[in-house]
Design a protein that fits this description.
This protein is of the alpha/beta class. The chain has helices at about 1-40, 65, 170-185, 190-200, 205-220, 220-230, 280-290, 300-310, 320-325, 335-355, 360-385, 395-405, 425-440, 445-465, 470-480, 495-505, and strands spanning about 70, 75, 145, 155, 235-245, 255-265, 270-275, 295-300, 315, 440-445. The strands form 3 sheets. Strands 5, 6, 7, 8, 9 and 10 form a 6-stranded mixed sheet that branches.
Length: about 500
């Protein structure tokens, strides 16, 4: 009887311990979900202040440090920085319409002396104004000629100018405007039809959709060339995002994926190429990067991990994703959470300083300062995984497991001057897609997704290069069909911009 009672007590204690673990996990989940619904999404941990310890000789010279506090009646606060970026800048070549306001004639007499007032100057107030854009018909008249004595010889007439889309009623200027509004300003085609209708122009959404797809397919050789250029850079960033696509014949959507590939050796490379696929299979990555075998930055998606495991690439996993995992931790050893976040913050701070220096100095900073911090993090993570009292399903366990699996690759960026600590370059490149899909919701088919990927590549690269995508697309669409194939690279956004600057100087 006593043995049965002990067994029953042990079972109850074991059950109680399991229930406590479940309660601990559920509380963490509730706290995390509340934070996601109602809290701030920022990953900033520590506000920079005078108490922060900087590494000797590597203090960043930011405006934030230069701003001194000044006393005000109730408290202390930092004065606002006036950098001029928040000012309204009006181009000098904008047309000016003057409105002259004058006082009545009877008020131009001095009330004291009775003498006429003398004009001594003007009070000028300048305001930026707007007039709705206008459309016009571009009429191309081609004179026809024929022989009076030999009419059977045929008619002589000038050839039509080269056009991106054969027999299209839309001029390249209109096509460029439609593409930029959808893929840069995230304005769906059905809203554009409404805008046209307000100006008395009736264009169906189906026609606009056909124009977009035809433009995308015609411009695809440019994007193929951009892809080759990015892969040759030896330093690429890759990410993917789900995009809905209509299922053929089913009347509902299925999930496709848009990949983005960014490459170059600048701190924020401007060239970006998008690729649409109907699924998230690992083979899509092979199609996108082909036989690429150099530095690749990404999150911990299995396709990239597999390439790293077979040593096809030098994989630089994203430390921002590692940091995010620990930020999500709400229960457990919170002192360890603070410690590792502080160490990660030091790494990001050092990288900001390193990218302000030459490539040689950047490598020196990494070897002298950053490698020791990474070794500390790895040792602490291993100790926690071995001796820490961590609940199996907790976010702390997930975060530790995430970074532990990446230990063989954490130092890869240290010896490559143009490698980065994070994959934020690619994440910034997918942000326009995240905004756009909230507006146009889905692609109509895989051909529409492929065309969208082409136009996104050109438009977003233009934005990265700080050039007007509308001007670029209009000019390129007018000339690309007659441009020599062996000089097609001259139509790429960066080389197009360089040619425009050269022509302006000349």
């Amino acid at each position: 009887m006593m043995t049965a009672q002990i067994t029953s007590t042990d079972a109850l204690l074991a059950e109680n311990a399991e229930l406590k673990k479940d309660i601990h996990w559920l509380r963490e989940q509730v706290k995390y979900l509340k934070q996601q619904l109602f809290g701030k999404k920022s990953e900033k941990i520590i506000e920079p202040n005078k108490d922060v310890l900087w590494f000797p000789g590597l203090e960043p010279s930011t405006e934030l440090q230069k701003r001194e506090k000044k006393p005000v009646p109730a408290h202390e606060r930092k004065p606002p920085v006036r950098s001029g970026k928040d000012a309204l800048v009006i181009p000098d070549d904008l047309p000016v319409e003057k409105t002259i306001l004058d006082i009545p004639e009877e008020e131009k007499i001095c009330k004291e002396t009775g003498l006429p007032l003398v004009k001594i100057g003007e009070e000028v107030t300048r305001k930026l104004a707007h007039r709705p854009g206008s459309y016009f018909v571009k009429e191309i008249v081609r004179i026809k000629y024929a022989s009076q004595k030999a009419p059977d010889l045929g008619i002589a007439v000038a050839s039509m100018p080269e056009s991106l889309l054969e027999r299209c009623q839309a001029d390249e200027s209109l096509l460029a405007d439609i593409l930029v509004k959808k893929f840069c300003d995230h304005l769906p085609l059905y809203r554009q039809t409404e805008i046209f209708s307000r100006d008395g122009i009736q264009i169906s959404r189906q026609i606009l959709s056909k124009w977009v797809i035809r433009c995308g397919m015609a411009l695809k050789p440019l994007v193929d060339m951009m892809t080759t250029t990015i892969l040759k850079s030896g330093n690429i960033f890759i990410d993917e995002i789900p995009i809905n696509m209509l299922s053929p014949g089913k009347g509902k959507t299925q999930q496709g994926y848009m990949w983005v590939l960014v490459g170059g050796k600048a701190s924020d490379p401007p060239h970006r190429v998008y690729g649409f696929f109907e699924n998230r299979k690992h083979s899509n990555v092979d199609k996108l990067i082909k036989e690429y075998s150099e530095t690749l930055h990404s999150d911990k998606y299995g396709a990239y991990e597999a390439l790293a495991a077979k040593k096809q690439i030098t994989w630089c996993p994203c430390y921002a994703h590692i940091r995010r995992k620990f930020i999500e931790v709400e229960q457990g050893d919170l002192e360890f959470k603070k410690w590792i976040l502080r160490k990660l913050r030091y790494l990001f701070m050092l990288e900001r300083v390193a990218w302000a220096r030459s490539p040689e100095e950047r490598l020196e900073i990494r070897q002298n300062q950053e490698i020791a911090i990474i070794d500390e993090i790895i040792a602490a993570v291993k100790e926690q995984m071995t001796f820490g009292n961590i609940l199996p399903k907790s976010k702390m366990k997930i975060a530790l497991g995430y970074i532990y699996s990446l230990i063989p690759y954490l130092k890869n960026y240290l010896t490559r001057p143009f490698a980065r600590l994070d994959n934020n370059v690619a994440e910034r490149a997918v942000r326009p897609l995240a905004i756009g899909r909230k507006n146009w919701l889905f692609f109509g088919n895989d051909e529409g997704g492929e065309a969208a990927a082409v136009i996104f590549s050109l438009v977003q690269t233009c934005r990265g290069l700080k050039i007007n995508p509308r001007e670029y697309l209009e000019d390129v669409m007018r000339r690309v069909m007659s441009h020599p194939a062996n000089k097609l690279h001259e139509m790429l956004p960066d080389q197009w911009a360089a040619a425009q600057q050269l022509s302006l100087r000349n």
